[in-house]
Amino acid sequence: MNDDSAPGKPAATSESGAGTPGTELRASSKDDYPENETAFSCSNMEFDDFDAQSEQLGGHRQEYLKLSTGPFRGRLVSAFLGRGVSVHRETVNCAMYQRVGFPEGLIELGVSLGRAPVAVNGIELGCDDVVVARPGSELELDIPPEGAEYLVLAVELPVLKSLDCMDSGLELLDPHGRGTSMARAACLASAIETGVRTMLRTCAQAPAAWRPQDAARALAAESVAALQLDASLGIARERTRVKRSAAVLAAARDALSAMEKFDYATLSAATGGSPRSIQLAFAERIQITPRRYFRAIRLHRARHALLTGAGGRSATIGDIAAAHGFWNWSLFTQLYRRQFGEAPSETRARAKSRNAPRALHK
What we know:
Number of strands: 14
Order of helices and strands: EEHEEEEEEEEEEHEHHEHHHHHHH
Largest sheet: 9 strands, antiparallel
CATH architecture of the largest domain: Sandwich
């Protein structure tokens, strides 16, 4: 598999204003390295549009729901080292619900570094926890109002299998295992944090003497060795216990997505809990009310319609607002600006600009 078709390769970036390069994209040429080396590329981009940020990792299916009010600020730093290994650092500044579907053919290992805990599939991550995303799996993240920062190491399966230190007994790295796992593995978490940070810093400096292929393989091998150390010390264990409040939130979230009009009776039927218990679960897990979550869903759907031109060219912003349950134009504009940090007309204008012919960063 060559680099251009590798899972996780970033999409082409346009001069749309949604993503601003913090450092210039760098793609090394074949002349930079001997014939047995693989070229690498790195990017460091800031975003004020969460949809634009979610589109950057090719091969991943991503869905964002912004829950905090005010402008979005995010950053995605990626380095593709060649031969099936890449590293990433992603940050967001606000409460989010994020659903991610992972590509086939690789395993991704992630750690959360934020000040407040991120929950993955209802399990809050600690500093010694690692997320193991297997090929084709999905996960759901609840990001707190303080935002989040996470580091990811992605390794293609042939690379993983070729490592001399790879032990078939390491169940966490079994690509045929079930979905996504959360594991308490202190040595592995430390190896990922140190290795990914160092690799991204080195890639940004792009020293002429270094060999990214060797560095990529060494990072993958070090991570496997760290997990083996966790296992040999008896401190590696998978986390599976989900609190009742997390289960209530998940059931209520699905019910809210299907609702046309907010109704506690429907939520109670879906969760098996009283309105008060549902409110407490939302307050504990994501610090907002069920009614406000429902409103955020409708605002996002209206925003999606503005960005995609749903309803045709003749559809006014008022038409789109009414189609999503907002009959008061003034109130819709006020709520929309509070949620996204811009007016509906600004979103539509930016969408038209993004869809116009434009040059690409080279």
